[in-house]
Amino acid sequence: MKKVFLLFSLVFIYGTSFGQGKYEGKFEQLGSLLRSPNVYRTASGAPGPEYWQQRADYNIDVTLDDDRQTITGSETITYYNNSPNPLGYLWVQLDQNMRATDSHTPKVATSGMRDTLYSKWVPGIELNDYEGGYKIKSVTDENGNDLKYFINKTMMRVELPSVMNSGDTFEFNIEWSYNINDRMSDGGRSGMEYFPEDDNYLYTIAQFYPRMAVYSDFEGWQNKQFLGRGEFALPFGNYEVSITVPSDHIVASTGVLQNEKEVLTKKQINRFEKAKKSFDEPVLIVTEEEAIENEKEKAKDTKTWVYKAENVRDFAFASSRKFIWDAQAVKLSDDNTPLAMSYYPKEGNPLWEEESTKAVKNTLETYSKYTIEYPYPVAISVHAASIGMEYPMICFNFGRPDKDGNYSETTKYRMIGVIIHEVGHNFFPMIINSDERQWTWMDEGLNTFVQYRTEVEQYDNFPSRRGPAANIVRYMKGDKQFIRPIMTNSEQILQFGANAYAKPATALNILRETVMGPESFDYAFKEYAKRWAFKHPTPADLFRTMEDASAVDLDWFWKGWFYSTDHVDITIEKVRWFKYTEDKEKLENQVSVSASQEPGDASEGETALEDPMYFTITDTPDRYYGEFMNRVDDKEIVNKAKDKNFYEVTFENEGGLVMPIIVEFTYADGTTETQKVPAEIWRRNENVAVKTFITEKEVTRITVDPNLETADVNLENNVYPRKDVKSAFDKFKDGTD
Length: 737
Description:
Blueprint: H1 2-19, E1 55-65, E2 70-80, E3 87-93, H2 105-108, E4 135-141, E5 149-152, E6 155-164, E7 169-179, H3 183-186, E8 191-195, E9 200-205, E10 211-212, E11 215-216, E12 220-221, E13 237-246, E14 250-253, E15 256-257, H4 260-263, H5 266-275, E16 283-286, H6 288-295, E17 302-312, E18 317-320, E19 324-329, E20 339-344, H7 351-370, E21 378-383, E22 388-391, E23 394-397, H8 409-424, H9 440-458, H10 473-476, H11 496-516, H12 518-532, H13 539-548, H14 555-562, E24 570-580, H15 584-589, E25 613-615, H16 634-641, E26 645-653, E27 661-667, E28 672-677, E29 688-695, E30 699-704, E31 719-720, H17 725-728
Parallel strand pairs: 1-13, 20-21, 21-23, 24-25
Antiparallel strand pairs: 1-2, 2-7, 3-6, 3-10, 4-7, 5-6, 8-9, 9-18, 11-12, 13-17, 14-18, 15-17, 16-19, 19-20, 22-23, 24-26, 26-29, 27-28, 27-30, 30-31
Helix pairs in contact: 7-8, 7-9, 8-9, 9-11, 11-12, 12-13
């Protein structure tokens, strides 16, 4: 009894030391790595009973000057302080100042020299006298009185005349202008593209107005400077925007057009109404022939397009006389039929007319399945060269055929892929509104994961780049000095596409397919979307919700995939084959049971395990039953073991990332069987795990991760015997690294 008590005492002491943070193993709970739960954000991952967020409504008048390529605007912002805190000033984002002459963006960019440089990339050489950044004309209160303000690069502090208490609103005005950047020479997430053949411009206009920064319960003001990579954190609000452009321009925009009779022809209005009832195919509102005719002369007068949008976090538009325009209704439910629309110049055809709106429709359907039903009235894809960028209800996408209209399958699928991705951003982060400036992966990674689901479910044999586990192997096994954990700020990421897009998307795919299973994952993922739609989630809210809604402890998974740079490399280090025998001579003459058969022991032409080892079974001594009066049937145990094969397999974790062990047994008759061992097998020893498998048939080959589900970086050590590695993965000869 004393021995039993001592054993339990040791277990208690050892076990409690884990919880006290004395051991930081891979199965240690996230604990202090996550923000403590509070009245705003609960331990379950749901918004708390006192959750709050700010709101900003905008009334904007903006003019696009097609001769000077400038934007001039004025706005009235109504800011609502829903926080419990008094505010003495407001922070406004001036993202165009990234292009100002005193911007830090070019200063912090690294650059080098080589013996031959492309003309476009000669550092420090500019072909024009472009002057970027906002020119702020005035900042006034609702009565026209000047407000004090201070501009620090891409942020502007507006000082309030009196403290803004909880529940107060404050209305103020800003007048501004800026020069539109040429994306061909200057790059950028928005700007203009010039078409020399017909002397016209296509404008994709975003970050065009001073925008309120987010003030939140978890960070206060998000006023980290915009350097160009870390995108945007924005509050929700309602918008009314009047956009004045040349009268022959077509304007695509966030929101719903309010004055179609003033800006569209009767023919265009009739086609637009027809599109609202067309669920099978798009309706052309402006045809290619009409767009080509429209390019020929430039109107000198203007029209003003008025758009309204409710409960959005941003606003963007596109304008050109070159636009072809089509639209199609998408039936998400009986009372929810948003319009999928595309705007594109003739240079995008025939590809865009064939594929763009179809891709928008497919995206809305699939994302609505995995998150929430798309709540906005429109979703727009605009064609612009060499860009993929997203805003509420509208996005700008690349994918241009050759000049003769021909295009490759690569061009087609890359275009479809970017449209799915950018339209998908309506959900992450335009609705499920994470802080992109801080956690790029929360919008890019989650979005790329659902993009992959869309590609798989809506297209046959889509050549998906990101999502499948095998596709991340090259990155995962790379030099760790060039890799950062997923939980890294946007500006500090080294390999942006792999780290912020591919790895989190792959992790979620593995979590769905291999760790949790689709049913549990889908329910929890949708629960996260429902909880945080039109709110500001953090990583902790995602991690906690996924566990809360599934009853699966995933702290080990988040730690490995999101907080570390470990990779998956599980090897079969030893295999021992045992059979039961009552022959004492066999037991006495065999090699000691401590001997092992190494993975390469079987020679060419032999079966995997030519010679089994033998064991016997004896009755269990009474002392192992403790106080129990009944006994197991020793003879029945022997009878059940007689014809079985016992395979003791030693696995080693060489990559550091603990994962489930997926084991495929190939039998002598050619059949196969797969067993999945949960990741918790590593909980006592994170480096070595020994597991005995019992089979009816004799095994000729054992393979770890036979379907490339876990991103294991070295398949050479996944197979016993080693000589069978090629045949074990031959079906993936075009897809393995």
